[in-house]
Q: What sequence folds into this?
């Protein structure tokens, strides 16, 4: 096997959607890039997440990035040469009670004041029109009409392929064992030899804390395993993605009739073994919610369940930006189970940051220093 | 079951064929709390299916080997182990929690040790038209015979190779059924390859039995040998089978039933979903688990016995079950009084003798493992053809898991049982690399579909009792 180049302008650690996207944008800026991936791109959360392409219900700090990403999703084929299975029928946050409606109204009012209009209140009638299968007792909800979903593995592969076409080099099945900086150059040690570059991007997902720790910047990263299930095919009955807040459910039907049930119930990750253990009692709770809310699903069977391995930060928003302790190191991890939609724009922003040292997109809220106070 | 807690057992054995029955019997006799779970309404597995209740009462039809299964069931019943028949295991995780379903209700069980004895399944036999009604596997046809006394309907042709093909043909004839032709796909080269293993095989009782069966069938059924291609034809149901033999002769026969069989391979789904490491076996052309001499897999506490550990037949399966049970019980309580395993090991090696001959003789030719015709369906659930798979490989798709995203191949309700080996070998052939490098589907639970309604009613277990092992 060829060892490949030993030096580059930038080394990206991690071949998930974020690493691939950053590699693509760096390569298109004319920089030489080596991506180091310990398994293969999309092996973990980037390939097996629910595929939600969602601006709806995001943390305020994420909205500028999310809106920028949405623009890119809407032209995803121009960006990566594949439609990534992206379909846009909106995402709907369903209120189950009047009290929830009040909370949602306050939120949408706040967004409107800040100038964001992507979230829109809907009453019971419009909700019924959008999601005819929803239970009659729901008083309304919030819709983000441009949202939708895509095929996560296919998307990650498309970004990888586009990055390679733009000149990025991928070293797959290669694990980082350490990194040191000397004389303005990073030496990234791997189990297949060392590679050098002036700049490094830490996009190592659920393993990113180890890269950060190696340079003396410990981060409070929690390894999580959000669980998903998929059903046998049922007749088409729902177009938008449906989210419930209080009962932790996200729900979507694919064009082939299968239905994906998620919502953030967690299994147990064993990250050193690339293994997750499902918690069927929690999955049972999801099944129960679906059974109650969508009578049409009562005859369905569950054909597959799984969990990816990903990173969650204590405040549920990612770490994006330069290291506080090591020059030439940039972090891009901790997307806390909702990083898929952010992939296209975050890669662009981090590439800009690496190449020019600055970006106009507000990312201060994601600085790594926020955990040290 | 104690209310609100997870039921716990020392040893849970999955599968009531020869390996599972022998394992559960030994564990039960050793005093371990032992539960045997099996999908079928009665014990026996595939080989001794319905041995306690078959309507086929004339013992000559199914033969002495079949009826010998009754003895295994009798000793099991007296062993102190408990049985749950009609019970599907839909999940097994590395913590040895099993998800089971019985009578429309799902439960979780905690096991101290698990012995997976899920046996073999028939190797996929993807030929053009194999999805037509009227085309079925010999194994499925034999199930109908054993469980319900049903013989194949109308003009019947059996195609393929392997010991089961001849056994079933003989059983049909003895039961008064007819078979119009046998299309034998054993390549001549296999006889030459097998010859070097003949000395071992000549010592095995299988040799004499195999010859007798073939002789019995050949006396009454026309046979075509060296068959190199087969296709089923028909609209809505099979009407004819066309085939070609090595000499170039082509034939077409009208049929109502076409039965296919090209040997058996380990049924890997439950073990793989539990995380047990499997490797490619070049001799049997299938994936087999990595096991130690107590048949423990790479997942601590999960043993794999019987044909699931690599095809070796019913007699070897029994001894493997006993050896797995000894290791499992010994691990749970070293002080337990257990039989000496040496006798079982000797029996096992005797039964494994001659296996190399059978493996070499009955290895299906590559052209029947990897469909040559692009239009041949490979994944029945998602209707994916060989040609579509070839195209995606040409675009750079390197393995079966990456392929799922493009073709949904293997993502249907059968979880890849009907296409997994074909897909792995097809990708390897197209890429020009060993199948070992391509690997197999990463399998996800539930390994058998579970009704949403059943999962919704899963009793919530008390976490605190999860780790308690009843000793």
A:
């Amino acid at each position: 096997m060829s060892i490949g180049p030993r030096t580059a302008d930038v080394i990206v650690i991690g071949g998930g959607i974020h690493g691939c996207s950053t590699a693509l944008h760096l390569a298109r800026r004319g920089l030489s890039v080596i991506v180091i991936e310990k398994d293969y791109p999309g092996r973990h959360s980037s390939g097996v997440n629910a595929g939600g392409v969602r601006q709806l219900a995001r943390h305020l700090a994420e909205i500028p990035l999310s809106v920028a990403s949405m623009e890119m999703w809407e032209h995803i084929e121009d960006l990566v040469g594949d439609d990534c299975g992206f379909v846009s029928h909106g995402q709907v946050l369903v209120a189950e009670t009047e009290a929830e409606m009040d909370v949602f109204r306050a939120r949408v009012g706040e967004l409107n004041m800040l100038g964001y209009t992507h979230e829109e209140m809907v009453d019971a009638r419009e909700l019924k029109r959008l999601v005819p299968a929803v239970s009659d007792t729901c008083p309304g909800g919030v819709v983000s009409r441009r949202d939708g979903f895509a095929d996560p593995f296919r998307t990650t592969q498309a970004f990888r392929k586009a990055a390679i076409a733009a000149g990025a080099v991928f070293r797959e099945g290669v694990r980082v064992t350490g990194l040191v900086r000397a004389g303005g150059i990073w030496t990234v040690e791997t189990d297949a030899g060392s590679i050098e570059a002036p700049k490094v991007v830490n996009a190592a997902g659920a393993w990113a804390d180890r890269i950060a720790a190696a340079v003396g910047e410990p981060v409070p990263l929690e390894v999580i395993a959000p669980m998903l299930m998929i059903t046998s095919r049922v007749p088409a009955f729902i177009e938008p993605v449906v989210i419930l807040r209080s009962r932790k459910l996200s729900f979507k039907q694919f064009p082939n009739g299968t239905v994906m049930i998620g919502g953030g119930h967690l299994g147990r990750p064993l990250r050193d073994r690339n293994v997750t253990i499902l918690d069927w009692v929690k999955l049972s709770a999801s099944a129960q919610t679906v059974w109650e809310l969508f009578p049409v699903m009562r005859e369905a069977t569950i054909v597959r369940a799984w969990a990816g391995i990903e990173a969650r930060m204590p405040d549920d928003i990612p770490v994006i930006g330069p290291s506080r302790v090591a020059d030439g190191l940039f972090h891009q991890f901790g997307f806390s189970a909702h990083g898929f939609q952010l992939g296209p724009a975050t890669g662009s922003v981090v590439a800009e940051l690496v190449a020019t040292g600055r970006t106009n997109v507000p990312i201060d809220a994601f600085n790594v220093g926020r955990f040290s106070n | 079951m104690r209310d609100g807690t997870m039921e716990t057992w020392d040893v849970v054995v999955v599968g009531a064929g020869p390996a599972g029955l022998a394992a559960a019997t030994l564990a039960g006799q050793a005093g371990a709390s032992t539960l045997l779970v099996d999908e079928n309404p009665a014990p026996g597995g595939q080989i001794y299916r319905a041995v306690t209740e078959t309507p086929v009462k004339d013992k000559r039809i199914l033969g002495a080997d079949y009826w010998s299964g009754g003895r295994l069931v009798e000793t099991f019943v007296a062993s102190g182990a408990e049985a749950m028949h009609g019970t599907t295991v839909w999940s097994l995780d590395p913590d040895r929690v099993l998800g089971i379903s019985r009578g429309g209700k799902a439960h979780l069980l905690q096991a101290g040790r698990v012995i997976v004895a899920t046996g073999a399944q028939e190797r996929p036999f993807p030929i053009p038209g194999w999805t037509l009604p009227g085309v079925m596997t010999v194994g499925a046809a034999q199930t109908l015979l054993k469980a319900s006394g049903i013989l194949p309907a109308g003009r019947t042709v059996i195609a393929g190779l392997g010991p089961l093909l001849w056994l079933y043909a003989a059983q049909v004839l003895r039961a008064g059924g007819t078979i119009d032709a046998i299309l034998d796909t054993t390549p001549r080269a296999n006889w030459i390859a097998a010859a070097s293993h003949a000395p071992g095989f000549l010592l095995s009782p299988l040799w004499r039995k195999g010859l007798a069966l073939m002789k019995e069938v050949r006396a009454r059924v026309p046979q075509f040998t060296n068959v190199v291609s087969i296709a089923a034809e028909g609209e809505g149901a099979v009407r004819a089978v066309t085939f070609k033999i090595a000499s170039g002769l082509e034939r077409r026969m009208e049929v109502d039933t076409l039965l296919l069989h090209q040997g058996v391979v380990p049924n890997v789904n439950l073990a793989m979903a539990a995380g047990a490491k499997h490797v490619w076996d070049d001799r049997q052309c299938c994936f087999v688990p990595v096991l130690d001499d107590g048949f423990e897999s790479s997942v601590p506490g999960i043993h794999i016995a019987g044909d699931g550990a690599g095809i070796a037949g019913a007699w070897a399966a029994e001894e493997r079950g006993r050896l797995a049970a000894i290791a499992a019980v010994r691990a749970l309580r070293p002080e337990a009084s257990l039989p000496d395993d040496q006798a079982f090991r000797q029996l096992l090696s005797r039964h494994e003798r001659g296996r190399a001959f059978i493996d070499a003789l009955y290895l299906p030719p590559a052209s029947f493992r990897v469909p040559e015709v692009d239009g041949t369906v490979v994944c029945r659930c998602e209707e994916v053809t060989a040609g579509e798979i070839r195209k995606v490989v040409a675009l750079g798709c390197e393995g079966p898991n990456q392929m799922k995203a493009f073709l949904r191949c293997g993502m249907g309700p059968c979880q890849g049982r009907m296409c997994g080996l074909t897909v792995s070998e097809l990708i390897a052939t197209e890429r020009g690399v060993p199948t070992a490098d391509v690997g197999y589907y990463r399998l996800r639970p539930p390994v058998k579909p579970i009704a949403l309604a059943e999962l919704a009613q899963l009793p919530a277990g008390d976490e605190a009792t999860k780790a308690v092992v009843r000793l």
Summary: Residues 366-438 of chain B form a domain with the Arc Repressor Mutant, subunit A fold (CATH 1.10.10.1100). The interface with chain A takes residues 91, 93-95, 97, 99, 108, 275, 396, 402, 404-406, 408, 411-413, 415, 444-446, 449-453, 455-458, 460-461 of chain B (CB under 8 Å). DSSP finds 19 helices and 22 strands in chain B. The longest strand of chain B covers residues 105-116.
